[in-house]
Amino acid sequence: KRHKFWETQPVGQFKDLGNSSLPEGPIEQPIPLSEVKQEPYNLPTPYEWITCDIDSEEVCNEVYNLLTNNYVEDDENMFRFNYSKEFLCWALRPPGYFRSWHIGVRVKTSKKLVAFITGIPAKIRVRDTVVLMAEVNFLCVHKKLRSKRLAPVMIKEVTRRIHLENIWQAAYTAGVVLPTPITTCQYWHRSLNPKKLIDVGFSRLGARMTMSRTIKLYKLPDQTSTPGFRKMERHDLPAVTRLLRNYLKQFVVAPDFDENDVEHWMLPQENVVDSYLVESPDTHEITDFCSFYTLPSSILGSQNYTTLKAAYSYYSVSTKTPLLQLMNDALVVAKKKDFDVFNALDVMQNEIFLKELKFGPGDGKLHYYLYNYRLKHVLRASELGLVLL
Ligand SMILES: COc1cccc(CC(=N)NC(=O)c2cccnc2OC2CCNCC2)c1
Questions:
Q1: Can you tell me which atom of ligand 1 is nearest the CA of 295?
Q2: Quick one: angle between helices 57-70 and 85-92, nearest 10?
Q3: How far is 11 from 179, CA to CA, in rounded Å?
Q4: DSSP state of 109
Q5: Phi-psi region for residue 324, left (φ > 0), alpha (ψ -120 to 50) or beta?
Q6: In terms of C-beta distances under 8 Å and separation of at least 24 residues, what long-range contacts does 6-12 make, across chains too?
């Protein structure tokens, strides 16, 4: 398949697959910042770049509305991600973030926001090397401006601004195959509110299954089962950071979280991110951790409902409590918080619980990519320890 744009970029090319003489690591070397293009790329005449100050209520509203109406839909165009404003503020302002990496395109005359792309800095370890990268996300072009080749110029512009901060690698995901995935993940869903999921067409009633039998199949206990299972609090930061760092060591690609990162990414925020841990009742040691983020989806064609409340498995660590039991408790709290579905990728050790806890496979795949960093071999999903928002 022709990838006119990606064939010009420093990414693993399909023609290089299997060529194990190519070394693992950066594909192109950094260049002096004075040699990075100083001025923005040219946009088609009617449009101009705008740096989006996500702290501003008005700008955050514009970004929220653009994504709500034009961002990623499922393969059958029945659902569209509906990131909340507070989620976007969280996702785009981690420690060390650059406002210049929150890039919008607007119509010069009307000032209407018609496209968006973002980067955030992240320390990502690849095998034994920690690389400062950008995580590129939220690439969105208004439905009415598709196929105008805006995406390539937006990717080049965010890359240029990332280079200006002396960062030369990036990580991103896509539902489509581009040159060249470092791994491909299957996504899985665990019904929490099967009646609503079937009503809106997210799930189908199983063969030889009645609705009441289906509701019973997915029923969860009212309470969690693990002694010492509780919400994470600020004073748990050092212990959770230690637990996470230790656990993520086993994966080929994983974030290199420090305490500041954990404070931002794991401290619970209502309707954004939930995190729980197990504190041993007798030793008070923190032995396990689990987290999920809140990403609702708009339901595009239902009379009865407008929004699907979905939880997305984030990072979980099991050292004493079996992962199966830990994740079952995560399902219990998600159900109590009125989530309709709990989603997970088959990354890390998630395969341990997916089938056992009655997750069903989704109908799509999520491909992970690194920009300007070659891996010698494609990874198994279980070798990946990175979850993007
Ligand atoms: C249910 O509503 C949807 C609305 C839009 C798209 C999809 C399917 C889909 N593309 N799902 C995922 O990409 C996905 C499935 C399970 C876990 N994480 C996921 O994506 C995350 C990570 C990448 N950025 C989007 C959120 C579903």
A1: 26
A2: 100
A3: 7
A4: T
A5: alpha
A6: 6/178, 6/179, 7/179, 9/179, 9/371, 10/371, 10/372, 11/178, 11/179, 11/180, 11/369, 11/370, 11/371, 11/372, 12/179, 12/180, 12/182, 12/374, 12/375
Q: At which residue do the structure tokens 């969280």 appear?
A: 90
Element (H, E) at 294: strand 286-294
Q: How many angstroms separate the CA atoms of 301 and 78, rounded?
A: 6
Q: For residue 1, is pLDDT > 80? A: no
| pLDDT tens digit sequence for 43-74 | 999 999 999 999 999 999 999 999 999 999 99
Q: Indicate whether 95 pLDDT > 90.
A: yes
pLDDT at 273: 99
ipTM of the prediction greater than 0.90, yes or no: yes
Q: Between the CA of residue 111 and those of 43, 107, 115, what are the distances in Å?
A: 15, 5, 12
Q: Please choose from 67, 72, 176, 203 the residue to mutate so as to test ligand 1's pocket, defined by most ligand atoms within 8 A of CB.
A: 72
Q: What one-character DSSP code corresponds to residue 322?
A: -
User: In this predicted structure, what is the pLDDT of residue 17?
Assistant: 87
CA distance 64 to 86: 10
Tokens 């925020």 found at: 269
> What is the pTM assigned to this prediction?
0.98
Catalytic residues: 389
Per-residue pLDDT band at 310 (split at 50, 70, 90): very high
Distance 366 CA to ligand 1 centre (A): 8
**How far is 344 from 205, CA to CA, in rounded Å?**
21
* % residues pLDDT > 70 (the chain): 100
Q: How confident is the model at residue 2 (pLDDT cuts 50, 70, 90)?
A: confident
Q: Give the distance (Å) from ligand 1 centre to CA of residue 328.
A: 21
Question: And the tokens for 46?
Answer: 């009617």
pLDDT > 90: what percent of the chain? 98
Cβ partners under 8 Å of residue 51, min gap 6: 99, 100, 102, 103, 104
Is residue 307 exposed (0-12), middle (13-18) or buried (19+ Cβ within 10 Å)?
A: middle
